[in-house]
Every structure is written in structure tokens, then in C-alpha cells.
Design brief:
Length: about 375
């Protein structure tokens, strides 16, 4: 091929890529990271497709690079180990989390978030949505009701994966399953009636998980209008971590956070002595997405750290990972629903040493 033509073709290709990225407001405000290998999503006709519904990430290291991490796509039964380098993601091994089937077809976990915790033993945790499928018929027949029940059962789980602390690799027999969160939701007066209802009718959908100060925090995308002592807000249900797999008392608490009307939790991530909350619309397309800081207590306030720019492509931030402090800024990695392999990109947020609440504080109590 003549050099001039080859150069022209490279220029056109680069221009096409640039045009695509320019259409994304988040890309304009951050750095897009390439993925080496393949982040696996749905399997169609026996072929592994690239993930387009990445919904959660957590890493065994809190700082530095490389980091050993786990990613989940909400349209699969699997999770995938990845290695984060500064500026790129390397895809690794796949681990199967559930084996549910209905009428001969695989039923997805609808995994929505990932967390990591290490004390004497180290685990990744993956949380299912605990929600009714969002695209089912408004008046399902008997067969459809059976499918809905199967999908609800598959998604109503918290799964932990035991890993080697040094390598982040799974240990044989690593996967354990808990349905304790569903039990806690069922026992909570403010949440129980929402189980099994469609999201647009106030139904339960869990999208965030964090392990913080010995407790598991589950953040709800919906409902987002739970009554609290200081008004309506989005719920986060917390309980002692040992209750989920080790039979210890749960001591559940329901936290009601004022995140804005119609705004629910899309992800949770621990950063130092705070929980970062990625928020977005409970229902509907479009709308605003934001990042908040919260101290995780019943009396502490939530603080708005950053409003994320709207993305013209319709992609939605679904996963949040703190990376490092750069001056007064915290650099975080965002993964987007609707982008191939999550469209990983970084943004910077201001995170002051002393955070003063800008909204009335959340409230919680024993459920």
C-alpha cells in the first residue's frame, strides 16, 4: 500500500475515534483507559461477547499500581478478574458465580456491585440486584410469572469469593452464596412491601455494596422515596458483615439519605474514613449523576462532591473506584453501562480534608 494512502487511512481512523470520544461529555472531562484482552459479557450462540453492562468493580489494593480487581457485568452469571495498571486494564480469568437455569436457559445473577474485605481471610463480595426484571410484561401470564420468580431468586444473593491475599487469585472452592440480605429486606417495615415490584412502581433494586467498619452496606437505586425522620430519601441498609456467611447477629440499620428527588444509589466505594456514593436517576433515561461523600453513620451528613456531566451517547455511570489523590483532587475511575467493556475513564473530584454537610444528615435506626 502506498505510504500516502496508508497515512490517510490512519488519519481517517484516528479522526473517527476522536469524533466518537468527543461525543462523550465524560470523555471530554477525563482520560479513557484501553482494555487489553476482553471483558466478557453475554454469551450468544456460544460466542463470548464484549461486556456492555459493566456494573461493579473493586480491588484488593487501596492504592498504587498494579491492582488486582474483580469486575461484574449485570447480564451474566460470572465475574472477571482484571489487573489495573495506571492508564489501562488487563482482562484476566473468569469465575462462575451461579448456575441457575429456567426452561433450559441460563438465568443471570444481575450482579450490580463489588466490594473487597480482608482480615484473617480475604474475599471479594458481589451483590445481586434483588429486583424484579425491568423489562417484563405489566400483566404477565403464568409462564412469565414463573420466569420472573426464577430471575428474582437468582438475583437475590450476596456472593463472596475467597482469594489469595498476595495474588488476588481465587482459592479452590472459593464461591459461597448468602440470601441473608433478602431476609433483612423482608423484615424491614419500610422496604418489605417493595420486594418483587417493578422498579417504576417503587420496587427494590440494589446497585451498590461496600464493606465499611465491619458492616456490609447495600445501596438502593430504588425505591428512592423512603420516609425518614427528616423527610424522604434513598435507603442504604447496613448489617454486621458476619451475619451474611458466619451466622452472627445482623444488627440491621436502615439509613435514609437525601440524595435529591428521584435519585438513587448506583454504586458505593470506600475511600479512607468515608463512603463515596455514585447516584443517578431511579427510573427513566437521562437525568443527572453525581458523587457524594458520607461518613457512614446515622448522624453524619452527605456532601455533594461532583456533578457528572451529561453524556450525549446515553451511557450511564454505573461503577466507581477511587484511584489516588492528586493535590487537592481525588482521581476516580468510572465504568459506564452501555459502553463496550465499561468505557473506563477517569475524572477528578475535590475532596476536602474536612467535609461539611451541605444537606441535612441521613437518619437510621434498627429495622
Amino acid at each position: 500500500m502506498p505510504l500516502a494512502i496508508a497515512t490517510l487511512m490512519r488519519t481517517v481512523a484516528l479522526g473517527a475515534v476522536t469524533a466518537v470520544l468527543a461525543g462523550s461529555a465524560l470523555a471530554q472531562n477525563g482520560v479513557v483507559w484501553p482494555v487489553e484482552g476482553k471483558l466478557v459479557g453475554k454469551i450468544k450462540n456460544g460466542e463470548e461477547k464484549k461486556a456492555k453492562d459493566v456494573s461493579g468493580i473493586a480491588c484488593s489494593e487501596m492504592s498504587g499500581f498494579p491492582r488486582h480487581c474483580l469486575i461484574v457485568d449485570d447480564n451474566t452469571q460470572i465475574a472477571q478478574f482484571v489487573t489495573l495498571h495506571d492508564g489501562r486494564i488487563v482482562a484476566g480469568k473468569i469465575i462462575r458465580l451461579i448456575k441457575d437455569e429456567h426452561n433450559g436457559k441460563l438465568v443471570e445473577l444481575d450482579g450490580e456491585g463489588v466490594a473487597y474485605h480482608c482480615s484473617d481471610t480475604c474475599y471479594f463480595y458481589v451483590i445481586g440486584s434483588h429486583g424484579r426484571p425491568r423489562h417484563d410484561s405489566p400483566q404477565p401470564d403464568q409462564a412469565e410469572r414463573a420466569e420472573i420468580a426464577a430471575r428474582l431468586a437468582a438475583s437475590s444473593r450476596v456472593i463472596r469469593i475467597k482469594v489469595d491475599q498476595a495474588t488476588g487469585e481465587p482459592i479452590p472452592g472459593a464461591v459461597e452464596v448468602s440470601t441473608k440480605l433478602k431476609d433483612l429486606i423482608s423484615a424491614d417495615a419500610a422496604l418489605a412491601s417493595n420486594l418483587g415490584r417493578p422498579l417504576n412502581e417503587g420496587g427494590i433494586t440494589v446497585e451498590g455494596i461496600a464493606i465499611f467498619k465491619g458492616r456490609l452496606f447495600a445501596g438502593f437505586r430504588g425505591p428512592s422515596d423512603i420516609d425518614g425522620p427528616s423527610g424522604k430519601g434513598a435507603p442504604i441498609l447496613s448489617a454486621e458483615l458476619g451475619a451474611f456467611f458466619d451466622g452472627k447477629p445482623a444488627d440491621p440499620k436502615l439509613h435514609v439519605l437525601p440524595l435529591g428527588e428521584g435519585q438513587g444509589v448506583r454504586d458505593l466505594a470506600v475511600y479512607g474514613d468515608r463512603v463515596l456514593i455514585l447516584t443517578g436517576p431511579t427510573v427513566g433515561e437521562g437525568g443527572s449523576f453525581s458523587i457524594y461523600s458520607w461518613d457512614g453513620t446515622c448522624t453524619g451528613g452527605v456532601t455533594l462532591l461532583k456533578e457528572l456531566p451529561a453524556d450525549a451517547s446515553g451511557s450511564k455511570p454505573e461503577a466507581l473506584l477511587p484511584l489516588d489523590k492528586q493535590g487537592a483532587d481525588l482521581r476516580v475511575l468510572l465504568l459506564l453501562d452501555g459502553e463496550k467493556e465499561g468505557g473506563p475513564r477517569t475524572v477528578k473530584i475535590k475532596i476536602p480534608d474536612s467535609v461539611e454537610p451541605k444537606r441535612s444528615g441521613p437518619n437510621c435506626g434498627a429495622t
